[in-house]
């Protein structure tokens, strides 16, 4: 997903887009959120998420950089 976001950042910079509205559907919603968080300052007016699906964020073997599950207090 970072590759897609990097592509969006490169394109918006090349076109010098400012106050753009980014719309993401399904997994594209995750890309919009990641783009806005990493690169959107000064370029994004609004973000629209339509039936967005969050990426897998929990840390596991296939996602070692994910968020670790909290330990159970029991």
Fold and architecture overview:
There is one protein chain. With 74 residues, the protein is α+β, with helices and mostly antiparallel strands. The protein has a domain at 2-50. Helix content is 35%, strand content 18%. It has a two-stranded parallel sheet.
Summed up:
This protein has 74 residues and is an alpha+beta fold. Helices cover 35% and strands 18% of the residues.
Beta strand %: 15-25%
How far do the termini sit from each other?
36 Å
How many H/I helices?
A: 2
> Order of helices and strands, N to C?
HEHE
User: Mean of residue pLDDT?
Assistant: 89
**Largest beta sheet, briefly?**
2 strands, parallel
Overall structural class, as computed from helix and strand content, comes to: alpha+beta
Which range best describes the helical content: under 10%, 10-25%, 25-40%, 40-55%, 55-70% or over 70%?
25-40%
Radius of gyration: 15 Å
Shape: elongated
What is the fold's blueprint, element by element?
Elements: H1 2-14, E1 20-25, H2 27-39, E2 44-50
Parallel strand pairs: 1-2
Helix pairs in contact: 1-2
Key features of this structure:
74 residues, alpha+beta, two-stranded parallel sheet, 2 helices, elongated
